[in-house]
Specification:
Chains A, B: It holds the Pfam family UPF0122. Chains A, B: This is UPF0122 protein FYJ33_01570. Chains A, B: Belongs to the UPF0122 family. The structure is a homodimer. By secondary structure, chain A is mainly α. Chain A has 2 domains: about 5-70, Winged helix-like DNA-binding domain superfamily/Winged helix DNA-binding domain (Arc Repressor Mutant, subunit A, Orthogonal Bundle), CATH 1.10.10.10; about 70-114. Helix content of chain A is about 80%, strand content about 0%. Chain A has 6 helices and no strands. Chain A has helices at about 5-15, 20-30, 35-40, 45-70, 70-90, 100-114. In chain A, α1 packs across α4. Chain A is elongated. The interface of A and B includes residues 67 and 84 of A.
């Protein structure tokens, strides 16, 4: 099956675009670690149907990322922030206190993570 | 028809989720200012079909925003940044130079706008 870590990351950004049924199946498989057979039984369907559904969800999540790039942008924002803070510490010509640098770091983190 | 300004904002965030055909129609109507009749002629269809298509796109754009809130988050980020910079200027206990504050402002702006 597809890469669990990648799917879990994509779900962080695009889960709201899945249907409730898709979301349930994805959570059972990737968060609750149920087997395809167990999920199939709970949904009164076949193991193959669940397998296909997960494959379709994965394709949808990848397609959303290709179009909107929310995951890529998130990691780019984090990396820009880290470089900015690192440079602030390195070329500290204004003699910023550690507290202030930490405050700037936290504020940017808050802006990224809303 | 729907609010042009709101649609234009929603298009900034969700245009990649529209089909190429939908995108064409929306651009003709909202950016190139063509009339429904003109768009209908160019697409070899009826004025009513174009009207319905624009209505459907608008509904889709609104639904994406309800689910992902990218527009809301963008404006929230901008407002958090402005408050942060304002407070940095107000309680300037570290005697930050104007240049440095401007640099912090620009870096956060870059992080928001990638």
């Amino acid at each position: 099956m597809e890469d669990r870590f990648e799917i879990s990351e994509l779900m962080d950004f695009y889960a709201p675009l899945l249907t409730e049924k898709q979301l349930n199946i994805m959570n059972m498989y990737f968060n609750d670690d149920l087997s395809l057979a167990e999920i199939a039984e709970l949904n009164h369907t076949s193991r193959q149907a669940i397998h296909d559904s997960i494959k379709r969800c994965y394709k949808q999540l990848r397609s959303h990322e290709d179009k909107l790039r929310l995951k890529e942008k998130y990691f780019k924002r984090e990396s820009l922030k880290e470089n900015f803070i690192k440079n602030l510490k390195k070329n500290n010509t204004d003699n910023l206190s550690n507290e202030l640098i930490e405050q700037i770091n936290k504020s940017i983190e808050e802006i990224i993570n809303i």
